[in-house]
Amino acid sequence: QLQLVESGGGLVQPGGSLRLSCAASRFILDYYAIGWFRQAPGKEREGVSCISSSGGVTDYADSVKGRFTISRDNANNTIYLEMNSLKPEDTAVYYCAATSVRIVQRTCIMIQVYFGSWGQGTQVIVSS
Questions:
Q1: How far is CA 85 from the centre of its chain?
Q2: What b/e string do you get for 85-100 counting C-beta neighbours within 10 Å, with b at 16 or more?
Q3: Which residues contact 16 (CB under 8 A, 6 or more apart)?
């Protein structure tokens, strides 16, 4: 069974930075596209960023473009989400998810139903 564990969340002031990690175990990360999603209180879960299985394709929600960077270290089975210039509206529980669906592996389209394995989430609070 696939297991994903997020870490790195916390409380940060507006304009600050955080780096989230998504550690994968019990499967070879190379074959999976990984997405980061978030859910703010009272809102639906939304896609934030995605990286293809090869690492050659990435995608970002418009709201985070230019501020967030996704990367992967397959040797260590870890995906990172570097978040800079954080805003209060970035406050949410952040989840990483994995998929072996081929269209997502190649194009990184962030359709949640394609992602079959999810982590438990890590809380990010941006507040002064």
A1: 17
A2: ebeeebbbbbbbbbbb
A3: 86, 126
| Sheet with 18-25: strands ordered across | 3-7, 18-25, 78-83, 68-73
Phi, psi at 96, each rounded to 5°? -105, 155
Q: CA-CA distance, 76 to 5, in Å (whole number)? A: 13
What is the residue whose two structure tokens read 């990483």? Answer: 96
- CA–CA dist 18, 20 (Å, integer): 6
Instruction: Determine the Cα–Cα distance for residues 87 and 122; give it in Å rounded to an integer.
Output: 17
> CB neighbours of 94 closer than 8 A, spacing ≥ 6?
6, 9, 20, 36, 37, 38, 48, 81, 121, 122, 123, 124
pLDDT in tens, 83-116: 999 999 999 999 999 999 998 888 898 999 999 9
pLDDT tens by residue, 28-42? 777 889 999 999 999
Give residues with Cβ within 8 angstroms of 76, minimum separation 6: none
- Token pair 């090869």 is found at 54
